[in-house]
Amino acid sequence: DGGITQSPKYLFRKEGQNVTLSCEQNLNHDAMYWYRQDPGQGLRLIYYSQIVNDFQKGDIAEGYSVSREKKESFPLTVTSAQKNPTAFYLCASSDRPGVTNEKLFFGSGTQLSVL
Amino acid sequence: ILNVEQSPQSLHVQEGDSTNFTCSFPSSNFYALHWYRWETAKSPEALFVMTLNGDEKKKGRISATLNTKEGYSYLYIKGSQPEDSATYLCASMTTDSWGKLQFGAGTQVVVTP
What we know:
- The structure holds two protein chains of two kinds.
- Chain A has no helices and eleven strands.
- Chain A is mainly beta.
- In chain A, β4 and β5 (about 45-50) form a beta hairpin.
- In chain B, strands 2, 4, 5, 9, 10 and 11 form a six-stranded mixed beta sheet that branches. A five-stranded antiparallel beta sheet of chain B has the order 1-3-8-7-6, with no helix packed on it.
- The radius of gyration of chain B is 14 Å and the shape is globular.
- Classes of the chains: A mainly beta, B mainly beta.
């Protein structure tokens, strides 16, 4: 089945620790995105990538880093510089970036909590 | 309107009743408006992507309208069923934020039998 796989489903971070959230897609989509959800707020864009080896900061990129070495993979690292990392993280992808009628396909999310 | 706003935040509907709710978005430099349905413990799924003023989309009992000049979209559910229970998200894209969708906080719909 084609889709987006996020892992792990739950993740705990200790103080000063970097953690990496995995996102893999087998939809052959060019664009991939990372969103963060906090209670009562809309999804906020962290980083996005429209092509391999290229990515752009979203609205809340501070304290996060990404890489896009392969088309199917877009891992997100939450660094120790992110002081409030507890949130639900969603990865998404879309085909043909820049075409306005292209919908997003989402993974099932990772809940990150701080110990 | 600078942000995407959805109202109400939540609503309870009796099975069989129809309902509707609103998404307000920046009307200037409008590019596209997306609607997603997010059921508990599942991934958000796209319902509609709308780009033209006056556009109307329909999928089964769910339909949406779009007014880009005044910056709002309505989502309608006709004859609500328990399986319609979900959070409905809208997101807009403008020409000066090309490629970046801005999401509202969602409307949570609970349909009771």
